[in-house]
Amino acid sequence: MKKLEIIIKPEKLEDLKAILDESEVNGLNVVNIMGYGNQKGIIKKYRGAEYRVNLLPKIKVETVVPEEKAQALIDKIVAEINTGNYGDGKIFVYDVEDAVRIRTGERGEKAL
Hints:
Blueprint lengths: L1 E7 L4 H10 L6 E7 L6 E5 L2 E5 L2 E10 L1 H15 L8 E6 L17
Helix pairs in contact: 1-2
């Protein structure tokens, strides 16, 4: 199993949820976060004065999928979420050793 930690712009959340639903992903967690990447934030103007905003709002979506679905899902997310601009986000991929459904005690992919 693979855990996907997907960090995107807030306006792309509905698009990402649609991709995950189409791919029959069983569950996800969504967290509002703030951060920056290579662009180190943005410069805004307010009443003629410039100021730097270096912590931008982002969304982190976490899900665990079977290993055989992971690469196809990553490819689909990159193809559909990508705008070609800084700040599109990142996907971090982790190995998941086991999962346990508390209600039934099921383990592994059956617990997803």
